[in-house]
Each structure stands twice: as C-alpha cells, then as structure tokens.
Write a structure and sequence with these properties.
Layout: H1 7-17, H2 19-22, H3 26-34, H4 45-54, H5 60-68, H6 72-87, E1 90-94, E2 96-99, H7 128-137, E3 145-148, H8 158-171, E4 176-179, H9 182-192, H10 196-206, E5 210-211, H11 221-227, H12 234-246, E6 250-257, H13 263-280, E7 283-290, H14 306-319, E8 325-326, H15 330-341, E9 348-351, H16 358-361, H17 372-381, E10 385-388, E11 396-398, E12 403-405
Parallel strand pairs: 1-9, 1-10, 2-3, 3-4, 5-6, 6-7, 7-8
Antiparallel strand pairs: 11-12
Bound molecules: iron/sulfur cluster (SF4).
The site of iron/sulfur cluster has 12 residues, from loops.
Length: 407
C-alpha cells in the first residue's frame, strides 16, 4: 500500500485550506497543539480525515471505509479529535441501579441468554414489593437513575408496569426512571390494545422519565430474521423512538454488533439512527453493545475482539455527528477496554450499574457493579476528567449530606 505523506504535513496543508479549524475555541487549539499528528498508511482515510477536520458529515462509503481499514489508530485519532472538540476531557458517568422485573419472555431471540419461557427453570417475575425492595437495596450510594428493562411477559398486565413506575416514583421521587425498551413499549401497547403513543403517554404519566436504547440490535431485516425474528422490526423500533421523542421522552440508541451482521448492515443502522436524530433530536447517547454468545443459540460464534470493540466506538463517534454522547458500556467490553475507548471517541463510561443480569446470563465475566470511586479512578487514569451526571447529562454535585443536580 502506498505511503501517504506524514499527517503532520497534510495536517498543515489542511489548516492552510481550512482557517475555520484554526479559529476554534481555545480548548480546541490546545487539543490540536497537544495531539499527535494524524498519520495513516491507508489512502481511503485521507479524504475522511479532511471531512472530519472540516466538520463535514461522513457518508455511507466513508463509514464502510472506516470499518474496512486496519488502521485503528488513524480511525481512533479522528474519533478522539471529534470527542475532544465536543467534550474536551469531560467523561460522564452516573450512579444507577438496574432493575429487571422479569426474565419471562415470549420472543425467544437467538441473541439472548436472559429470556425464559414461563414456568421453565430459572424463570422469575418480581412481585411489585420485591421490585421496590430490589430498588431500595442498591440505594446506599444515592442512586440517581433506575434502569428498568425485562422480558416480554405474556400475562403481566399493563397495569403492573404502570404500578411499578408510580410505586418507584412514590418511594424514590428524586430518582430518574429510564424504563422499557422500544421493544417492550411495542409489546405493552399490543397487550393493552393501545396505540404506541397512548402507551407511552400512560407510562410517562406513571413516572417514566426517559427510555433506554435497547432492542435496536441491527435494523437490517436479513440480520434480524436470524438473531431476533420475533421482535418488532427495525422500522417499528425507529417509529416507537420517534413517538417517544415527540411526546418529550428522551432515549438512547444501541447497536448489537459482533454476530452475523456485516459492515454494510452496521452502516445502515448508524445512518438510520442519524436520520431520525436529524428529525427529532431526541437521542442522547449511542451505545454499541458487544455480542456475548455464551448460553445463547448462537454460542458457536466467536466473541468480539478488542479491535472490533474500539472500532464500534470510534465509527459511532464519527458517523453520528448529531448524537451528543457515545457510551462505552464497561459491563460488555470490560472496564479496561472501556477506559481505552475514552481515547477512541467515547465520552461516557455508563454507571455503577449494581446487579447487571442480562449480559452476565450471556457469559459476561465483568463484576455486576462498580463503585463510584473506581469509575472515577479509571477515568482519571485515562487522563480524563470524571463528571458525575444524571440521566439527562446534568452535572451532579455531592456533599456528605446532599446530592444536587444542576438544572
Ligand atoms: S432479547 Fe429481549 S425480547 Fe428477545 S428474548 Fe431476550 S428478553 Fe426477550
């Protein structure tokens, strides 16, 4: 492969052609002055680098080229540049608790090790009081968010979920409820014989503050038929997210990678998310999720590699130019990889979690929770500044006696 001139050189050329980049804020000039010069031996990356430096949107061909290149450091350099342009050294985390009210699920997705058929070994459903006790048991660190997701239970009435949310709000009024994936919302609407909008409005009235990003997987039908045939399709996921955003509920968006999808499928997924974000502005964070095959019907597939994990973070940052945040979910890629990803485009390391079940059923070997001090230590060791946030990315200030959210 032909060697390109060292990036320091065409970096200078670029600045001559693009004065806008020289006149960015003083933080950015620092970043530019301190950054290693960009260099690559892959000629496909030079025009992408020029676009990134000019703040131009990348297209599908650019995104495929980013996935195809072996030059992970060049891709990381560009993603890190964008990350620092948007957030400097700030790295967000929150103190949250996961609550999975039931693992009973009618869907039987082949990607999943969490869902169980009713009345089979390991199937569980929390009584409401049990869910409230679970919420209280992780409360010692002044949790600011409950992340609530579960299976598609064939018998639980919609009222159970409304009572769950209103009961949690009553007991923990200051805790943000980030609850129910688009897949769960669509299923609840079917069970309750309500429209998606009505379902979301009732959930919101019962206390739901925002939605997580799960269930998106990969939008392409070909892939969805293999990994999650019984779930809503990609367009229904996007439509549900759109309605949530329209009624004032922010959400996240995920992409499950490392199974049977190809580069084009990933690019298609990212571009569909970006198009919806142009329309609604309702997504907060993109979270690439590494597929864990253990204990799933797809357990013959290999686990993701470090290269692939870093690539998803970096390509996500570069393509999703309208997403404020890119999260590296330490539970799935390990805290060590998540820490490195803070130099590959990620500006969020998720939270303390407390009792993660879904990926541990699929063989994740990470701890089921992490203390706030440990998250902060990892972020500082990456040369970044830890910022505790609430779910809406407002800074949280703590003293020995109080927790304050900046509004
Ligand atoms: S991924 Fe979700 S919808 Fe699919 S089987 Fe598992 S719990 Fe059910």
């Amino acid at each position: 492969m032909k060697k390109l001139p060292r990036a320091g050189n065409y970096g200078k050329l670029f600045f001559a052609r693009n004065p806008r980049s020289e006149t960015q804020s003083c933080g950015i000039i620092n970043v530019m002055a301190n950054a290693h010069p960009f260099q690559t031996d892959d000629p496909r990356l030079a025009p992408i680098h020029a676009k990134v430096m000019a703040g131009e949107r990348l297209d599908a061909a650019d995104a495929v080229a980013l996935y195809r290149t072996g030059d992970i450091l060049a891709v990381g350099w560009m993603a890190n540049h964008v990350r620092e342009r948007m957030h400097g050294d700030k790295t967000y985390f929150n103190v949250n608790r996961h609550i999975n009210p039931t693992n009973v699920c009618v869907a039987a997705c082949r990607l999943c090790a969490f869902g169980r058929k009713k009345d089979t070994p390991g199937a569980y459903t929390m009584a409401l009081e049990e869910a409230f006790e679970t919420a209280a048991s992780g409360y010692s660190e002044a949790v600011t968010e409950f992340h609530i997701v579960g299976g598609l239970h064939p018998d639980l009435p919609f009222q159970y979920f409304l009572d769950l949310c209103s009961g949690l709000k009553q007991r923990f009024p200051q805790v943000h409820l980030k609850a129910f994936t688009m897949v769960e919302v669509a299923y609840l609407s079917k069970r309750a014989k309500l429209s998606i909008r009505e379902t979301l409005e009732q959930l919101k009235a019962s206390g739901v503050d925002s939605l997580p990003g799960g269930g998106a997987e990969i939008f392409a039908d070909r892939v969805r038929h293999i990994i999650c045939d019984h779930k809503i399709d990609g367009s229904q996921w996007l439509e549900t997210a759109k309605i949530a955003h329209q009624i004032g509920l922010k959400s996240n968006a995920t992409m499950l990678y490392g199974h049977v999808e190809n580069d084009e499928d990933r690019v298609d997924h990212l571009l569909k998310l970006r198009a919806l974000q142009d329309e609604t502005g309702g997504f907060q964070t993109f979270i690439p999720l590494a597929f864990h095959p253990d204990n799933t019907p797809l357990q013959h597939l290999p686990k993701t590699t470090g290269m692939l994990d870093m690539k998803q973070i970096a390509v996500g940052r570069l393509v999703l130019d309208n997403f404020p945040h890119i999260k590296s979910y330490w539970q799935m890629v390990t805290s060590k990889m998540a820490q490195i990803s803070l130099r590959f485009g990620a500006d969020d390391m998720d939270g303390t979690v407390i009792e993660e079940k879904i990926y541990h059923d699929a063989g994740a070997t990470t701890p089921q929770g992490m203390r706030r001090e440990e998250l902060e230590r990892l972020i500082r060791a990456a040369g970044r500044e830890p910022i505790e946030r609430d779910t809406l990315y407002r800074p949280v200030t703590r003293t020995e006696t109080s927790v304050t959210v900046a509004v």
